[in-house]
Amino acid sequence: MEFGISTLSRGLYTSRGTYMAVAQAAEAAGFSFLSVNDHIIVPGQLGSAYPYTQGGSWSASEHGHCFDQLAAIAFLAGCTSRLKLLTSVMVVPHRPVVQTAKMLSTIDVLSNGRLVLGVGAGWMQEEFRLLGAPFEDRGAATDEYLEAFQALWSQERPTYKGRHVNFEDVIFAPKPLQPGGPPIWVGGESQAALRRTVKLGHGWYPGNNNQKMLMDTPQRLKAGIAKLHAMAEQAGRDPASIDLGLIVQSPFDWTAQPTQDKSARRMFTGTSDDMRSDCAALAEAGIRHVALRLGGDTVTESLERIQRFGEDVIAAGG
Prior knowledge:
Helices cover 38% and strands 15% of the residues. By secondary structure, the protein is an alpha/beta fold. It has a single domain, classed as TIM Barrel. It has an eight-stranded parallel barrel with strand order 1-2-3-4-7-8-9-10, surrounded by four helices. A two-stranded antiparallel sheet has the order 5-6. The protein is globular. 42% of the residues are buried.
């Protein structure tokens, strides 16, 4: 099983030195990837409900601090050598399609093929409006953008014709270092996200705390995976061809914490033995990649947590 650190570019992650320290510590501790979240601009008055918290509140709504995701990942590529770099997730319709494909291709080449493209259709209506992006039609736009990325990354003279994207007989170079482009992990838990995974994704990368579809225990996660596999079979795709990941949207901690409904221990809290048991249960469900929120009130504490998890969980075989 591969583990990653899921970073939110606020709080501790607001300086060059801190981001470098966390990325390099994660690499040294045996983590396999590091992810960066994606917001560009935040409205002064947010009315959209965040899907992953009770009540729909979003922790960055007051200050709005957010690095540009792709610039941050390019920076992190330059101060690491082994870690894969995951967009978690990139809100696909936020940026112009061809420019985004070029930025992703450049990152993949200059990182020596370490980019993983986590994608989603987004949830914040006000941000779409501020960016001039299509919110009501964001699902269809996301699908077209992903198809256009793949055309630009794989065709000698790329051509794509759709409602949101059109180009013909263009020259696009360099191509990504990874043949066909970086692997696409589709985020989200809705029927549309499952459909997108089956149609366009290399993997499914749900969050564990969507209030409409909690997957905060291995049993609940298995139910979600069963839905994905049934949809894949209906579409004629081998379910085994879909990679499986999970983002655990609360910090790992050596004090046991309950799930939201108090029915079980929250995954990756408790003793190191508990965490290794969580790894085994997720592996049995088919999960191969787990992104964890770091926690810690200071940089020193965060780095200590990275080292301890590496020694107690990753080095012990996860």
